[in-house]
Structure formats: structure tokens, C-alpha cells
Amino acid sequence: MIGGHLPVLLVVLPLMAAPVCVVVRRPAWAWTVAALASWGAFVAALGLLLQVLEGGPISYPIGGWAAPWGIEYRLDLVGAFVAVIVSAIGGIVVPYARSSIEREVAADRIYLFYCMYLLCLAGLLGIAATGDAFNLFVFLEISALSSYVMIALAQDRRALTVAYRYLIMGTIGATFYLIGVGLMYMMTGTLNMADLAARLPEVAETRTILAALAFLTVGICLKLALFPLHLWLPNAYTYAPSVVTAFLAATATKVAVYVLIRVYFTIFANVDVFEAMFLREVLMALAVVAMLSASAIAVFQTNIKRMLAYSSLAQIGYMVLGMSFATLTGLTGGIIHLFNHALMKGALFMAMGCVVFRLQVASLDTIEGLGRRMPATMAAFVVGGLSLIGVPLTVGFVSKWTLVLAAIEANMWPIVVAIVGSSLLAIAYVWRVVETGFFRPTPEGAPAVAEAPLSMLIPTWLLAGACVWFGIDARTTLSVARQSAAFLLGSGP
After folding, report:
1. What confidence tens digit (pLDDT) does each residue in 198-243 have?
2. Taking the CB of residue 450, how many other CB atoms lie within 10 A of it?
3. How many Cβ atoms sit within 10 Å of the Cβ of residue 28?
4. ∠ CA 77-218-400, rounded to 5°
5. Rounded-to-integer distance, Cα 23 and Cα 21, Å
6. pLDDT tens digits, one per residue of 157-179
7. Of the N and C termini of the chain, which has fewer Cβ atoms inside 10 Å?
8. Where are the domains of the chain?
9. Residue 85: closest CA among 234, 231, 240, 251
10. Helix axes 454-472, 328-359, angle to 10 degrees
11. Is 18 within 8 Å of 125 (Cβ atoms)?
């Protein structure tokens, strides 16, 4: 009985738990509510993935109203995969958050953090589950508005300015998306994604639909921070509480990339937008520029959280690059990188959160010799860094190798050079941290530093270990990514 309602439980569990955190108010009770809701959502997401693998896409009409008249939750393989990624990161982040938030957020606001975190989780999971274009906008705003509050909860006053800037840029992106949806509705009379896919070919050549596609692309690219619409992201990741940075870096941008995939390969599934509207060339060019320019900027950063933020911009480029090929191998590479980057960037930001917990700041001049004082934390950073570079036996290698194969299949050797060049730049900025932390002596008079609490180290190492585990044995994740890509391209079940 419950199994049939998993699509709605996926969203309802964290959504209904959020106001409970406000009612109970006590930090320990709010944390318990958040933990139960997060782990419950993960169980639901895992159950949905298994159901989709066994029986194909799941349709769940809300309130019994059949699509397209009512709102439909529809989970195919890629949606279920994204839901598992988001809920898994959420489940791992919650135990990490307990100690981290106590250090970085005022005690009388901790319950508000858990409330906002659950709302953000519900919004991100709703985006993965919904089959309605307007309902997707609603969930997009739920996740975005709660993200602004989580960033602003940091005790650093600069976080307020950063959150406000993020709000402005996020609102512009959401407005562009909504205008695009409105234009499509004006031409087709429907908001259901499957129904839109069936009706759009008749009006695909009209200026209205071309304008709708342009608005959707720009709005979503603002949300996912694709170059040159990325300026909100570095400061947001730098000044947000560490656990917020880890959660958003591992989930929010991945879900935004998923939205772009959903628009191109579901809503416009029967319209060859990559050939007819020159999207392939535009997206590929922006992705390559993001990969190279963001990696180059990261090399010169001294604040490690900002360095990793620019690294995230480069990794977004990899995901969009895979999508722009519009081939089975390319799209597989983009989808598998959604999963792999969530692991590696979650591990890296969590490791830096452990550093912030002890030193209050994560910058190169404060971590000299830290590898000898916090060996477990810095070792986790090294594992995540190797994954970021793409060293064999890590998840980063799986993603980059798949994208290289896609470029070779398309006979695009300059793209291969760009992927290798971006990886070499990653070596440079990761090495700066490793060299400072492990090969420089501890400064005289530096305070004694203990490792972070186990409640923070264990989640960090869960993600770091997963970077190696799924790098050595990538059969399951690659299989799911390839089946998802085949389904989106119309060549799968």
C-alpha cells in the first residue's frame, strides 16, 4: 500500500516535517525531526529507483485528477536517480550538521536552519518527481527561498549581502523560467510535460516557442550557474555555513542541471533543438569556457571554500558539456557526473567544514602543517581532490573518461584537449592545499588542534570512501546513467 504512494511521500515527508521543527524549537528535537525525515525520504527514493528499474516510469496523479488536467508526479529513471542523489546527500549531511551548525549559527536560530533545510530538501525532491512544468517552478522557488535563508543564517555579516545577491539573481532566473512556461502554455494550452512534448512539434517553428526556449535556457542556466551567469555562486559558497555549502554544492546545482536536461529531452523531446536552434554549439562553447576559466581562477584563490566554489563552476561545465553532445555516451557522461560530483564536492566541502569547526576559517595561510594535526580530515580532502582531478580508481576518472569517449566518438579532439587541460588546472589548485597542509611545517606558536568530532568525520569519510568505491566499481551507476540517457534519447525502455 505504502509503496504505491512513494512518489508523494518523497516530498511530503520533509515538507511536513519542516514546520514541526519550528514548533519544537529545541535544537536537539529539531535535529531529530530533520534526521528522521531525511532518512525517510532516502528510503522512499531508493524504493522508487528500484520500482522504476523493474517496471519503468511511475505516474502518480495528485488527488486522483488524471493528467494533463491535474498535476502529475512522474518518475522515470533519471528523475529517480536524481532523487536518490539528493536524498542520500541529505541523509549524510544531517548528522554532520549537528555539531557544525552549533559552531556557525546562533543558538536561537538553529531550529530555523533545520526548518529551512527540510523545505529545501522537499523542493529539490519535488523538482525530481514532478511531471508538471509549473509545479516544477513552485518547487524551484521553495528550494531557492529556503537556500537564501540558510545562507543568511551564518554569523558572518557578509552572508546577508551574499544571500541578498543570490536572491536577486535567483529571482531573475525564476522569472525567466516562468515566462518561458507561460509562452509554452499560451501556444499549447497545457503544462503537463508529457502533453507539452506531444503538442510542441506543431508550433515548434513559431517565434513564441523559440522565445520560450530562450527564456527557459537563460533562466535555468542562472540557477545552475553556467558561465557567464555564475557570479552569485562563489560568494554564496564562501560565506554560507559549512554544512549549507556542502549540501547546496552537492545537490542544488545538480538538480538545476537535471531541470535543463528535462526541458531539452522531455518537454522538447520531439523537437530537434540541438540541430535546429544551434543549442549544441552555444552550450558546448559555454561549457568549455566554464571548465577552463573557472579552473584557472581557482588556482589563484587563497580561501579554500572559494577555491572549491570556482571548481564547482568548472564541474558544472562538464555536466553541460555531456548534455550538449546529445549522444548516448555524452549524455551518460553528464548524468553520471551528477552523481560523482555530488560525492566528491560533498566530501571536499565537509572536510573544509571540519577545518572551519576548529580554526574558524579555511584559508591557505591557516592550514600550514594541518595534515599532521588533523590527519583524518586532510586525508579526506586528498581523496576528494584526487577525484576532482580525475585520477584512476576515483569517480572523477569515470566521468571524465566517459566524456572523453563522447568527444572522440564525435571526432571533437579540441574538446578532449579542453577536458585534459581543465584536469591539469585541477592538479594545480588541489596541490596548493595538499602542499600547504602536508609539506609545510607547523608555524611556531600555532594552537594545538584536535580532529573534528566523529559526527562530522564519519559523514565526511562516507562520501570520501564512496568516491573510491564507485570509482573502482562503477558498473551500477554507469548502468543507471546509460539507461537514463537511452530513455531520454528515445532509444531505451
Report:
1. 888 888 788 888 888 889 988 998 888 888 877 778 888 888 888 8
2. 8
3. 10
4. 50
5. 5
6. 888 888 888 888 888 999 999 99
7. N
8. 278-493
9. 251
10. 160
11. no
